[in-house]
Amino acid sequence: MPATDDSVASLPPLSLYVHIPWCVQKCPYCDFNSHNLKGGLPESEYISHLLDDLTQDLPLVTIDGEMREVSTIFIGGGTPSLLSVAGMQRLIDGIAARIPLSPSAEITMEANPGTVEADKFIGFEKAGINRISVGVQSFDEQHLKALGRIHDSTQATSAIELAKRLPLRSFNLDLMHGLPNQSVEDAMQDLHKAIALAPPHLSWYQLTIEPNTSFYSKPPTLPDDDILWEIQERGHQILSAAGYEQYEISAYAKKGQQCQHNLNYWRFGDYLGIGCGAHGKITRMAKQMPKRAEQDAAANTNIVPEYEILRTVKVKHPKGYMDLTRSYMDKVIPVESDDLAFEFFMNRFRIMEACPKAEFTKNTGRELSSIELQHLKKAESMKLITSNTEEWQLTDTGKRYLNSLLDLFV
């Protein structure tokens, strides 16, 4: 049964992230924890470990013998659509048997158009997936090749058309811009093709070169800053005219079609992370950690001692993760008081909706100090945010210079 204590209701919503670490081929721009599939997929073994991992995490979300309820699940990777339908069914059934799921839980699975056949999409939906995120990235064959994608534009279109025919709650189309040697017109052509497929949700984000990627070792020629800005400006206008609302820095959605899982991240909600290298963020109440609460109270810190926030990290490599001689948990890190403001605003200012000022104390367990107020006033003077007695709001300038805004809290 889900926890029903009134104090539990004051905690942020709880989500679950599930990581599937394998891909047919790792893309040269990808810095996620993914590994080329060599030989057969160890599906049954890995799913057993995922479910055991979840079982080991349950004490983190159990209060007075009752578990908190999960409101969203996101199965990411890697390439989760490599799993068989039977494997996906076992995974979702196993999760539901271990932790309470909201009757209206959003359950998202990432899919690569090159690893999905019609029967699998239909089977995934029957297994409980009610939202699919299709990693298209581009409809241009040359750009797909440069990005190391294993699908072509025909497969991408077919995958989206299939998603449209399924009785899903929603689906997302992932599209990138700022690709190697991409012109403004190339980017707009991609965007027009995506909009023509009428996805309820469209993630539209700029390619960035990250450390520990093939592109970082051998950087491709990317569009200059002026072209990138023109792509973003024209793209935003096109998406807005097509009825899409920008609700997050890199995400657009039709009315009522925002990704609830991502919104919980950016609102500084809680989430368990299971699977290789998965991260989690959990708020624990004082009754779950009496020693820490006593220490904070004795030290007279400005942390409200009703709860603390933990970051969790699982063992990264599949071989180590599936080693029965060790724990799945690699690190459990309490978020220090001095870091809470940066972590809260780093997430909260990614979304376009206004941020109620009361939300800071509710979701961090501490009052706004003179330091945070000073940073916020500076952000306001730089026209990165606006403020009134009730809330903060990101400005258009703040959207463009988000990193500068977040740097104020470091």
- Architecture (CATH level 2) name of the largest domain: Alpha-Beta Horseshoe
Largest sheet: 9 strands, mixed
Low-confidence stretches: none
Terminal Cα span: 40 Å
Radius of gyration: 22 Å
What proportion of the residues form beta strands (DSSP E)? Answer: 15-25%
- Could you name the CATH class of the largest domain? Alpha Beta
| Dominant shape | globular
- CATH fold-level name of the largest domain: pyruvate-formate lyase- activating enzyme
Rounded mean pLDDT score: 92
Determine the fraction of residues in helical runs and give it as a percent range.
25-40%
Number of strands: 19
Number of structural units classed as domains? 2
Structural topology:
Elements: H1 6-9, E1 14-20, E2 22-23, E3 35-36, H2 43-57, E4 62-63, E5 66-67, E6 70-77, H3 85-98, E7 101-111, H4 118-127, E8 131-137, H5 141-146, H6 153-165, E9 170-177, H7 184-196, E10 201-206, H8 214-217, H9 225-241, E11 245-248, E12 251-253, H10 260-266, E13 270-274, E14 279-285, H11 290-298, E15 307-314, H12 318-321, E16 329-334, H13 337-348, E17 355-356, H14 358-364, H15 370-381, E18 385-387, E19 391-394, H16 396-400, H17 402-407
Parallel strand pairs: 1-6, 1-13, 2-3, 6-7, 7-8, 8-9, 9-10
Antiparallel strand pairs: 4-5, 10-12, 11-12, 14-15, 15-16, 17-19, 18-19
Helix pairs in contact: 2-3, 3-4, 7-9
